[in-house]
Each structure stands twice: as C-alpha cells, then as structure tokens.
C-alpha cells in the first residue's frame, strides 16, 4: 500500500511557503510598479509564515496519517491544516511556548529597526487583511510619530526582516525536532527560474542554506521517481535539479 511519509508531506508545505516568499520578493524586480511592491510583499510573507507553521504542525501530527493509504493521508493532512487558525500571532506564540528552546521567543524580543518582534508579528497578521481590503482603522494608527502623522509598518523593511528570521526559526525547529531537511530538488518542478530561486535563497538564508537543505549524501532518492501529494496515488514524477 502506497504511503505518504512525514518528510514528503512537510516538504510539500515548505515548498508552497517558499513560493509565496519568492513571489513577494519578485515584485521588487518590477521597477515600474514599485509602490505596489511594499504594499503586497508583507501579505506574501504572512502566507509564507502561515504555511511554515502548518508544515511544523503537520510534522507534529504525523502519527495521524503515516499509516494511512496515500490518498487518505492527503485528506487527513488537509483536515489538520484547515484546523489551524489563520491567526498566526496566536499560532506562533503557542509554538514558541511549547518549544521554549527554539529561537521564536528570542525573535519576538528582538528589535527590527523601529519594531519589536512582538510588534512585527502583530503587523504581519494585520497585513493579511490590510493588503487586500480597505479597513476602517489601519495598523499604522498604533504607531504615531506626531499629531496626525504615523509610521506605516507595512511599508518598511523591518517586517520583511522579521518574517525571514521567523521563517528560518520555523525551518530550524522542523529540522531539529523532526530531522527533516528541505529537499531543494523539489524546486526543479516549480514555476521559478533557477535565478529567482538562488537570489531568494541568498537573501532569506544569509548564505547559510546548507543548514536547512538536504546534503548530496542525504539526497539519496534524487534519481528515483518521487511521489508527491499533488499527484494521484500511482503517479510518479522525475525530480531533477535545474542547472
């Protein structure tokens, strides 16, 4: 009976997280819409963090699907993911409390330019709504500079720097607690060019991606057909690295 491993499932959610992070960063390469860049990038960062939270929680609950047939396992994983709140501020803090030795508690206490980690997390959650819909009172109202003048935290680099630090912390927690490294070869089947992916990796991981990705020794199944959750049971795909 075909099974869906914890590693496959978690890698698939990490993959979708990276797609969102890269989409946000790719906007910066479109020079003629620069005002749009700063407006939408926090939303993509929010989605990237939400998907990483779900990747970790899916790993935590792998016992509920590891013995199931492939298609039933996908359905169970979908149930786990849907049961997780979209309020990532609450989810992140709970992960930090449940795993006090991880980097999340210290990240929430760190300053990112003019924002504390706690403030950046609140702003990131606000970005999920404010970047898509008009709101009666924006998050900037919490950051007055002078009378009727406010700092707009959704249009500063601090929230991006915070999101990347938090993303690295979640990936490191997945690696340390569940011994899962991201299999970079999955990106070979993505809509990204190799240049887009490499530029993002250098920015996101600050040249330390080897701490999070499978090594060539670990990547033993690269030459074999790999089943992935997006395919029906029995379907296989060939994973190959882009040059």
Write the layout of secondary structure elements.
Elements: H1 6-26, H2 34-60, H3 70-82, H4 88-98, H5 104-109, E1 111-112, E2 115-116, H6 117-130, E3 144-146, E4 149-150, H7 157-178, H8 194-205, E5 225-226, E6 237-238
Antiparallel strand pairs: 1-2, 3-4, 5-6
Helix pairs in contact: 1-2, 2-4, 2-6, 2-7, 6-7
Short description:
The protein is mainly alpha-helical and 243 residues long. The chain has eight helices and six strands, in the order H-H-H-H-H-E-E-H-E-E-H-H-E-E.
Could you characterize the architecture of this molecule?
Helix content is 52%, strand content 5%. It has helices at residues 6-26, 34-60, 70-82, 88-98, 104-109, 117-130, 157-178, 194-205; strands at 111-112, 115-116, 144-146, 149-150, 225-226, 237-238. The protein starts with 5 loop residues before the first helix and ends in a 5-residue tail after the last strand. The model is unreliable at 216-243 (pLDDT under 50).
């Amino acid at each position: 009976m075909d099974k869906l491993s914890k590693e496959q499932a978690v890698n698939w959610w990490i993959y979708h997280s990276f797609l969102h992070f890269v989409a946000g960063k790719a906007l910066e390469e479109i020079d003629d819409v620069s005002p749009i860049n700063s407006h939408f990038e926090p939303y993509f960062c929010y989605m990237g963090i939400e998907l990483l939270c779900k990747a970790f929680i899916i790993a935590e609950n792998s016992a509920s699907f590891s013995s199931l047939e492939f298609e039933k396992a996908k359905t169970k994983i979908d149930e786990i993911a849907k049961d997780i709140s979209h309020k990532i501020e609450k989810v992140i803090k709970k992960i930090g409390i449940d795993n006090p030795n991880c980097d999340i508690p210290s990240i929430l206490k760190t300053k990112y330019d003019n924002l504390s980690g706690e403030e950046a997390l609140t702003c990131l959650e606000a970005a999920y709504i404010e970047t898509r819909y008009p709101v009666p009172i924006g998050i900037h109202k919490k950051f007055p500079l002078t009378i009727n003048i406010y700092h707009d935290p959704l249009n500063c680099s601090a929230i991006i720097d915070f999101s990347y630090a938090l993303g690295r912390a979640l990936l490191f927690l997945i690696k340390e607690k569940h011994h899962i490294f991201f299999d970079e070869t999955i990106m070979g089947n993505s809509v990204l060019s190799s240049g887009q992916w490499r530029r993002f990796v250098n920015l996101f991981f600050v040249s330390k991606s080897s701490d999070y990705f499978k090594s060539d020794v670990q990547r033993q199944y690269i030459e074999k057909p790999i089943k992935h959750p997006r395919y029906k049971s029995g379907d296989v795909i060939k994973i190959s690295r882009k040059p």
